[in-house]
Design goal:
The chain is of the alpha/beta class. It has helices at about 10-20, 35-45, 60-65, 65-90, 120-135, 155-165, 180-195, 215-230, 265-270, 275-285; strands at about 5, 25, 50-55, 90-95, 140-145, 145-150, 170, 175, 180, 205, 215, 240, 255. It contains ten helices and 13 strands.
Length: about 290
């Protein structure tokens, strides 16, 4: 079996390298989704057994000013990968986001709920989902949320850095979701690739997140508390709870990003990912000086 992963430098791709050691990874230096036509032709030539689309334009605020670039990668790029998968007759695993929803629901979002993105990033990711669904029948779309890891630039590492620089932090408390450890997401993808769950997990959209729903504020408090206990923070700062209105951003964020985890996927995997365990793993890796 030959596995080809689109995306090579992001936090998910880095974890996929650990669990898909024989896979081929295409990043900007190989084939970028910024060139959809070129990606499709190259995929057909490579003829992999499975395509994993872990590449995306993920700069949510920047996308508001660069909608064409976000569309080219998230929508057109996903379409090109799906077309290639269909022509080759192989599965595609496509990673999507909670931002396809508007955040107005009073309960966690299920796979069949109506989508209504409220920012450019969400709209381009939804377009990518629709392209994959319409172009390739053999697809798994994994919607996930608030992805974090031990690599620089995500919420966990940012909170750890700021906690060592400041004695007081301000974090939004009225946006809720379920954080997802990139390592958990990678392990689920590896299980699908290996065929361990194919009979139990039907083609379609599946929500992947785990643990109790939380707010960015509580997430930050947890990171700082555990980071302090593990010796990664010298003095734990106080974390003030603020409203979204007190922290304006270029792109609107959904107030409710809580995804209802896929029951089918949970049963097939037996163990459901949990963000608190993921934070523990991140901190353990950081203490050991693993990838930064």
């Amino acid at each position: 079996m030959s596995v080809l992963v689109l995306g090579s430098g992001g936090q998910l791709a880095q974890h996929l390298r650990e669990v898909l050691q024989k896979a081929q990874f295409w990043g900007r230096n190989e084939r970028s989704l910024e060139d959809p036509a070129g990606v499709e032709a190259a995929l057909l030539n490579a003829s992999p057994s499975v395509i994993v689309n872990a590449a995306a334009y993920t700069a949510v605020d920047k996308a508001e000013d660069e909608p064409a670039a976000a569309w080219r990668i998230n929508a057109e790029g996903a379409a090109s990968a799906a077309r290639a998968a269909a022509k080759l007759g192989v599965p595609i695993i496509h990673v999507s986001t909670d931002y396809v929803f508007d955040g107005r629901s009073d309960r966690p979002y299920r796979e069949a709920d109506a989508t209504q993105p409220i920012n450019v990033y969400g709209r381009t990711k939804l377009a990518g989902e629709l392209a994959v669904i319409s172009l390739c029948s053999k697809h798994w779309i994994l919607r996930t949320s608030w992805v974090f890891s031990e690599l620089d630039g995500n919420f966990v590492t940012t909170m750890l850095r700021l906690a060592n620089e400041r004695d007081r932090l301000r974090v939004v408390a009225d946006q809720r979701g379920r954080p997802t450890y990139a390592g958990d997401l990678a392990r689920v993808i590896a299980a699908l690739v290996a065929g361990q769950t194919r009979q139990a997990v039907p083609w379609g959209i599946h929500h992947l997140s785990g643990g109790n729903a939380t707010s960015w504020h509580h997430f930050a408090e947890h990171i700082i508390a555990i980071g302090y206990e593990r010796g990664l923070i010298k003095e734990a700062p106080h974390v003030d709870a603020i409203a979204t209105a007190d922290y304006p951003t270029r792109a609107r964020r959904p107030a409710n990003s809580i995804l209802e985890p896929s029951r089918v996927l949970a049963q097939a995997l037996e163990v459901q990912p949990d963000w608190q365990a993921g934070v523990e793993e991140v901190l353990a890796r950081l203490r050991l000086g693993k990838p930064q």
